[in-house]
Amino acid sequence: MLSKKTRYAMVALTRLAREYGNGAILISELAKSEMLPQRFLENILLELKKMGILGSKLGKTGGYFLLRHPKDVNLAEIVRQFEGPIALLSCVSEKAYQSCEFCKDETACNIRKVFKEIRDTTFEKLESATLESLIRRNGDLPVNPEQSVKTDMTQRVDENETSVMDRS
């Protein structure tokens, strides 16, 4: 299971992704709107800043903002930062590999093979899940239309208008 810290990071990042390009958001506003404990959130945002995902601004209009476009931030890097390796066994981990103390031959170990497949599939899913894909799934588009990737939505509207015209 994911820790609260990881889930809070994802919730905060999703909100910041919706606001991408609109400037910084105060921690107090972020904590209140997303119902996250502010003291805990402060530490999470600092970690995300150290990772190069967030930037911050001091002053009256200060707060945190995404440094990278929402399509360039994936869940794999967030999970790895806050949870550690994606792999359930250290003998299949790419970032924290340790040889298995129970196997005589890792290449022949069927348990290892299954858990490597699980790791690979999990990593692929997490890597393909970006902040942009999270806000699109929810139907939440960034507030600033200039910063959103609106071509997909525009294309859907155009397709709907075409299909309505085809029916008449």
How would you describe this structure to a colleague?
α1 crosses α3 (38-50), α1 runs antiparallel to α4 and α4 packs across α5 (110-128). The N and C termini lie far apart (52 Å). The protein contains seven helices and two strands; from the N terminus they run αααββαααα. β1 and β2 (63-66) form a beta hairpin. Helix content is 52%, strand content 5%. The protein has helices spanning 4-18, 27-34, 38-50, 75-83, 110-128, 131-137, 151-167; strands at residues 54-57, 63-66. With 168 residues, the chain is mainly α. The longest helix has 19 residues, at 110-128. It has a two-stranded antiparallel ribbon with strand order 1-2. It folds into two domains: 1-74 and 129-144, Winged helix-like DNA-binding domain superfamily/Winged helix DNA-binding domain (Arc Repressor Mutant, subunit A); 86-128, no CATH class.
